[in-house]
């Protein structure tokens, strides 16, 4: 199990606290420092069952600079979104937990963290 976090994010800190309280075995990836590659982003999207625009923080300054709200949200635009996430990792929604069963969750609530913990391989 891996969790992608920004240590400055309260939801990330809350998720870590809950994982610790449950005695979970996990690794922390500070994704702003250890930036995911485009392939890693594609893999996480597949595991989440989501599209890149579904995990994009559109209120971030970089999103506004890029004009992301105007970008098409369709299959032909998918790679453009993935490239933007790789080049501007702050745009990636957090925290993301990759579960032991091969899936992943955007763990912004305690319930989502518990869901990730319940997904055994």
Automatic annotation (TrEMBL):
The keyword Oxidoreductase applies. One of its GO terms (molecular function) is arsenate reductase (glutaredoxin) activity. Keywords: Oxidoreductase. The keyword Oxidoreductase applies. CDD domains: ArsC_ArsC. Gene3D superfamilies: Glutaredoxin (3.40.30.10). SUPFAM superfamilies: Thioredoxin-like (SSF52833). InterPro entries: Arsenate_reductase, Arsenate_reductase-like, Thioredoxin-like_sf. PROSITE patterns: ARSC. Belongs to the ArsC family. This is Arsenate reductase family protein. It comes from Streptomyces cyaneochromogenes.
